[in-house]
Amino acid sequence: MQAKLQINTSTNWNKGKNGPLIISGPCSAESPEQLLQTSNMLAKTNKVDVLRAGIWKPRTRPNAFEGIGSEALNWLVETGKETQLKTSTEVATPNHVELALKAGIDYLWIGARTTTNPFSVQAIADALQGVDIPVFVKNPINPDLNLWIGALERINNAGIDKLGAIHRGFSTFHQEYRNAPLWEIPLQLKTLFPEVSIINDPSHISGKRDSLYDVAQKAMDLNMDGLMIESHLDPDNAWSDSNQQVTPSAFLELLNAIQFRSAESSSLTYNSQLEELRSKIDQVDNELFSKIGERMNLTKEIGHYKKINGVTPFQLDRWKEIIETRQPYAISQGLSKEFTEKVLQILHDESIKLQSAILNPKK
Ligand code: PEP
Ligand code: MN
Description:
The chain has helices spanning about 30-45, 70-85, 95-105, 110-115, 120-130, 145-155, 185-190, 200-205, 210-220, 250-255, 270-310, 315-330, 335-360; strands at about 20-25, 50, 85-90, 105-110, 135-140, 165, 195-200, 225-230.
């Protein structure tokens, strides 16, 4: 079932002053001074549209700092007034929603752990019924696109039309990232719901400062609609997520280093060159697929011989030979070893599937 989301595209709630919506601020509000000083420095960069600060922190382990709680809501609202920036925070229960709305927070987001639980999301949606406030839904911690979509639908069904998504990566037993980006999942969301803005959160994907740039640049190159980056005036002594937070000046450096390219260009020369090259690519793709078809037909022919002779579809020696003999040629054509391996794997898997269907026809 593919429903449509009703998204407000007529106001600028999801736009930044320079294009992408930029959200920044500490992982957690720690004290009025920490919040105000960090935010004043952020405001001076002139790069931030919305301040963020966690008031209630869903921590994985019980002895970690779990947030100041409702007392910090007013610090955030006051900081917003002082810096003339919008404010945002995470809500995980109907009570959080009620308190955040009463305090006058401008944007809400639903955290990754909450998105995994439809009961919690529905309870938040019920508390938002009839309220006009922008809400962002972070991806669930597990790589389940439907769970993400389901949460967006629940919030949208409550009448929230200023609705966006935040891509913060997925929990896997993986070393490279704190949360693996699995870019194909937000891209699939964008394909299904092009009207939904997707904000990338490089901080929770990277888990450390030195890979923020690569993740943020990639997100911008994939035409994502904004960035949420954690910043703190003294990141090393932050009470939560200290490894991934950056100072406001490092935040400014980071934003200055990112190339914000546009999805299109109005240059006539560029567009005509693009069209010419694309038509060549169309031709090459056709040739590729006719060759792949030819290869699969040969595979099927072999399948019939194997059937008559009682031979299995998979032969380890032949597979090794394919890899060994094809790779040097592919590499000489400028292709990488890794890419060649992937292509061969896909071709070989399909060949085995076709031959198995011949050897074991459905009864
Ligand atoms: C956060 O934004 O600080 C946070 C807790 O994020 P997530 O829900 O992505 O873990
Ligand atoms: Mn955090």
